[in-house]
Amino acid sequence: MHISWPPVILSLLLLAISFKSTTSAPDPSHRKCRCLPNDPCWPSAQTWSSFNQSVNGHLISLRPIGAVCHGHEFNEAECALAQQNTYNAQWRASQPGALQSTNWESRSQTLLDCDLNSPREAPCTQGRIPVYTVLAESAEEIQTAVRFARDQNLRVVIRNTGHNALGQSSGPGSLQINTSRLKRIEPVPDFIPQGIGASVGQAATLGAGVLALEVAQVGLDQGFTSIMGLCNTVGSVGGFIQGGGVSLLGPLYGMGSDNAVEFNVVTAEGDLVVANAFQNADLFWALRGGGGGTFGIVVNTTIRVFGDVPGIAFSLYAQISRQDPRYPDSVKAIFDITRQIVGIFPALRRADDATSGYVTPDITLNSTTVQVLSEILFPNTTNIDSIRQRLRPLMAALDDLGFSPVYTTTLTAFPGLSTFFNLTRLIPATGRLEGSVMVSERLLLSRNGPSRILDVTLGHAYVNGDQLEFFMSAGGQVKKNKGVIDSGLNPAWREAGMLVSLRRILPTSSATKRFANSLLPALRRIETPRLGSYINAADPDEPGFQRAFWGSNYERLYQIKQKWDRDGLFVVNSGVGSEDWGAEQICRVR
């Protein structure tokens, strides 16, 4: 779907939409609910046209990416391009009418409202895709869009790359404010936050639209590393940092949110403010872990970066055909490999608390294979023989399983971690549901901890498309920052050692209900009392989400939300203050 439409086309689109409104401001009686396209208070075509001029022609009428494959909008070449890129995360990130979790494009969350691969005559409805987007190229355009949405009483959706497990990047009948064009990358040798004369050291100011792969490339060129997620197409400083920021570098440098030192943010009043430890400190506190899309629209963020250090990475990949007679239970086979890798995590952590790693057993949707992928990162070392010695028990255990024909391992020394983080890691775009739980470092390092974790998670019947992830991403510096970093981040992260996540590829039918009713509750039983969940890998129906995502910090976050956004312009699924709103955050319920 092309988004660089000429202004005349946009004007025709605007005029082609039939709206009843003849006034530019909504009736106050509608303020309890947001104005939707069929409401009398919806802005007129002329109002939208004037607004487009005020944002320098960057207002675009949105349709789902599948629209070019249906009805009068059919375009053979555009449809073929969209179908070719259906699972391409980088392409989807560039399309404001697309998401990475495709089920959130639809109002049903299981069946697409505008399926790329359904017959041309099949209907294509808008689903949860916003009606318009502002492809903002400056803070001023974001300010203008926020003021327009506030004055017109519109539902606002903030989108960068479309990576979001909770559907927070879409919403029916909404105005999307898109930050993907804000690509500033400015390394600063000695950054001094506004309002204080002391440097916080090496940093980089990143626009809200900068992807992990983009900052990784600059880091490679200039010799630094920064906290980033596993997937290259995740934004570096949007919902990733505002949601906490889990990373392979967490045990070495702390959470992503720990390393944010300043935000430039547009508030619900349309003001551009600086938030750091010395100005608007409460907003700064909330933005570091309080969740994305909730307290304002971040234009850019300055984060600590770190001089490049060497490291060694271990990787394992195994793929087993379900028809392979040597492995009649192929799922059990990859789970056996998983057990050995998770089983060695405690010893690796005790040897060096900066060590991180993950293992992901995957029961692929294609039903012909199962696979498992693992990476373990050993930072600040060049001694490959020492690392090989640490891994010897794992390699012996894998040999004892007799799986050597189906898995491969590598041990690679990197002169700088920036090289490691420039390796391609993409998560294919699909429909998916997921959920996660933190596991305490106390349990992980206990004598029977790994067995407890694995027995609870692996002892279930999984279906095609299910994927587990055991991510040793906390502990180390994350734990050491307890009492040092004061932020909106769930305090439970300071006690965590691992994040366990479960994903299910959609569409499914009754299996989806079992995922929510059986498998996700099983995750929550790993440890009692449980620490909580990670909002960036969360169950959309997480019970008691306030405590699960933010623990004892929730009350203060809610108070800050009321101060900075009393009218709830920025409200997202399972975000701070969302309990005050009904379905799709359209009408207030309290």
Tell me what you see in this structure.
Belongs to the oxygen-dependent FAD-linked oxidoreductase family. InterPro entries: BBE, FAD-bd_PCMH, FAD-bd_PCMH-like_sf, FAD-bd_PCMH_sub2, FAD-linked_Oxidoreductase, Oxid_FAD_bind_N. This is Isoamyl alcohol oxidase, putative (AFU_orthologue AFUA_4G00430). The structure is a single chain. α10 runs antiparallel to α14 (449-458). This protein has helices spanning 7-16, 45-54, 76-84, 89-93, 139-152, 212-222, 239-242, 250-253, 281-287, 330-351, 384-401, 417-420, 441-445, 449-458, 477-480, 510-524, 545-550, 554-564; strands spanning 59-61, 132-135, 156-159, 175-178, 185-188, 203-207, 224-225, 260-266, 272-275, 297-304, 306-307, 311-321, 356-362, 369-379, 407-414, 431-440, 466-472, 496-506. It is globular. The protein has 18 helices and 18 strands. The strands form four sheets. Strands 15-12-14-13-17-18-16 form a seven-stranded antiparallel sheet. It has a five-stranded antiparallel sheet with strand order 5-6-10-8-9. Strands 1-2-4-3 form a four-stranded mixed sheet. It has 590 residues and is of the alpha+beta class. It has three domains: 37-178, Uridine Diphospho-n-acetylenolpyruvylglucosamine Reductase, domain 2 (2-Layer Sandwich); 185-308 and 573-580, Uridine Diphospho-n-acetylenolpyruvylglucosamine Reductase, domain 3; 311-415 and 428-545, Vanillyl-alcohol Oxidase, Chain A, domain 3, CATH 3.40.462.20.
